[in-house]
Amino acid sequence: MKFARIFVLAIAVAAGFIAFRMVMMSGGNQSEPVVVQAPPKTQAESEVLVAAKDIALGSKLTEDDFSWGEWPESSIPKGSVTKESDPTAKEKYSGRIARAPIFAGEPIRPERLISTDKGFMAAILPKGKRAIAVSVEAETTAGGFILPGDKVDLILTRKVKGKGNEEDVVVSETILENVRVLAIDTTTAGEKDQKTLSPKRTATLELTLPQSEVVALAQQVGTIALALRSAQDSADDADSDTGRRRGVSYVKYGVTSQVGVK
After folding, report:
1. Which CATH number fits domain 45-117: 2.40.440.10, 3.90.1210.10, 1.50.10.10, 3.10.20.70?
2. pTM for the full model?
3. Is the dihedral of CA 160, 214, 156, 244 positive or negative?
């Protein structure tokens, strides 16, 4: 009886040894490889001078309008000011005037700022343009809703003397289209949210020299009204009614002449 137990135990040990050998031969003792990921490379960043808040056209800048923002070196816009290249940029550009709107977080580019000893209006006028003031009232400026930066059409209303026994008549005609309003009184596009516009006012318009001549004459012969254009019709290349003849007719020494715009 004792021999039988020893025999069974020997068979069990032999079976266990055979199973162990089979596992060893099949590679079951190999552990899964451990993959170690390298830490991601951090992209180099630089401090770039950006707008701390929205800056409107014509705004005079202070140091509070600027801030330094972290910007990946590989995507810094060309022409931007970095702290490494100009650490005193906030003080340097303080006092300059915004030539164009700048939005919060947008990198500051020096060419969009004006540094001049001339007046603001002369500084922002594009080359070849003129600024001329036109006396208007709320009734002739879309109820007072025309603001600096808007585009308008100019309508001249004047009295035409009747021939012979005919009565005088009042006529209106569009003399200019798609004209930019630079300022209302002393309020520019950069100040329109801070100042209240009075009912009686002066609109300063951006014109070419020939257009300035038309407007100057129109103010002598009648009343000018400003018609506000929609945003869709206010592009610089917006289509206008080229079939209409524009200009101001006047009589001198009995001869009718016309000043027009090319």
Report:
1. 3.90.1210.10
2. 0.53
3. positive
